[in-house]
Amino acid sequence: MAEPVKAFVTGFPIRHSRSPLIHGFWLKAHGLEGSYEAIETVPEAFPAFIASLRENGYAGGNVTIPHKEAAFALCEAHDAAAEGIGAVNTLWFEQGRLHGGNTDAYGFAANLDEYAEGWDSADTALVLGAGGASRAIVHALKSRGFTDIHIVNRTPARAEELAAHFGSGVSTHGLDEAQGLVAAAGLIVNTTPLGMEGHGKDGLTLDLTRANPATIVTDIVYVPLETPFLRTARDAGLKSVDGLGMLLHQAAPGFERWFGLRPEVTSELRARILADMAK
Ligand code: ATR
C-alpha cells in the first residue's frame, strides 16, 4: 500500500496558523489518509528545511510569514502568480523539481467572487498598506482588470517600491491622502494589521459615509471577523466582506496539488474555523 501523502505549513511563529485545521477538515471530509502538520522554522534554518523536504517524504506544503520571499528564491520553477507577486506560499514537486506557487491572489478574488459578485466590474481600487499581502492583492486587482489602483501607506518608500514592481495603473499616496480617495473607489481593501485582535482596539479611521453606495469594502484581517473598519463600512450602508474566505480559498489549490482532489470551501468549514477562533 502507498504511504499516506504528507504536507506541511511552515512559518515563524506558526502556532496560530489555522491551516492544519482547514486541511485536517478536508482530509477527514474526503476520507483521505494524508497528513498536514505545522512546523516552526526560524529564518536561518529555512534553506536547510527546504533542502530536506524530499528526503523527509513531503509532497509539498505551505509557506507563510516570514518565508514567502525566501521560498520564491529556493524554488526551481514558479507559477504565473508567484512570478507576478515575487513570493511563494505553496510548494509541490513536479517531475522531481520543487515548484512554487502563490494562491493568495486567487484566495482574495475567490472570496469576493463568493460574497460580492460583480466586484471586479469597478476600475478604481483603494488599497491600504504596502506589505506582502498588499502585493498579492494588487496582483489580483490587475489580473481582474482594475486600471486605477491607489496604494496608501505609512512608509512612502515601500508603496513606491510596490508600485514600481507593478508598473502602470498603480499610484501611491501617504496616509493623509486616503480620505480624499474614498469617493472614487469602487473597492476599498485593508491589507494592514490595523483592527486585528492584539493590535489595539482601534482600526482604521476613514469616513466612509461619502463613498459611492456601490462601493465594496473588504479586510484581510479575520480576527475579529468584523473589524472596526468593516463595521464602519456596514454602518455607512456599504457591502462589506470579511477576510476569512480569503484564508479558506487560498488553501484549496495546495490541497488539490498534494492530495489529488479539489476541496470545497463550505459553510461547515467556515463554522469549524469560527468555533476554533471562539475558543
Ligand atoms: P503582510 O505580509 O501581512 O502584508 P507586512 O509586510 O508587515 O505584513 O505589511 C504590513 C502593512 O501594514 C504595511 O503596509 C505597514 O505599513 P509600513 O510599510 O509603513 O510599515 C502597515 N502597517 C502596520 N502597522 C501599521 C500602523 N500602525 N499604521 C499604519 N500602517 C501600518
Describe this structure in words.
This protein has 2 domains: 6-102 and 245-278, Leucine Dehydrogenase, chain A, domain 1 (Rossmann fold); 106-242, 3-Layer(aba) Sandwich (Rossmann fold). The strands form 2 sheets. The protein has a 6-stranded mixed β-sheet with strand order 2-1-3-5-6-4, with helices on both faces. The protein has a 6-stranded parallel β-sheet with strand order 9-8-7-10-11-12, with helices on both faces. It is built from 11 helices and 12 strands. With 279 residues, the chain is α/β, with parallel strands linked by helices. α1 (19-29) packs across α10 and α5 (104-115) crosses α10 (244-259). 2'-monophosphoadenosine-5'-diphosphate is lined by residues 65, 129-134, 153-155, 158, 191-194. Residues 65, 129-134, 153-155, 158, 191-194 line the site of 2'-monophosphoadenosine-5'-diphosphate (ATR).
Helix/strand layout:
Layout: E1 6-11, H1 19-29, E2 35-40, H2 46-51, E3 58-63, H3 68-74, E4 77-78, H4 80-85, E5 90-94, E6 97-101, H5 104-115, E7 124-128, H6 132-143, E8 148-152, H7 156-166, E9 170-173, H8 178-181, E10 187-190, E11 216-219, H9 228-235, E12 239-241, H10 244-259, H11 267-278
Parallel strand pairs: 1-2, 1-3, 4-6, 7-8, 7-10, 8-9, 10-11, 11-12
Antiparallel strand pairs: 3-5, 5-6
This protein binds 2'-monophosphoadenosine-5'-diphosphate.
Could you list some keywords that capture this structure?
Rossmann fold, 279 residues, 20% strand, binds 2'-monophosphoadenosine-5'-diphosphate, Aminoacid_DH-like_N_sf, oxidoreductase, SDH_C, alpha/beta, six-stranded mixed beta sheet
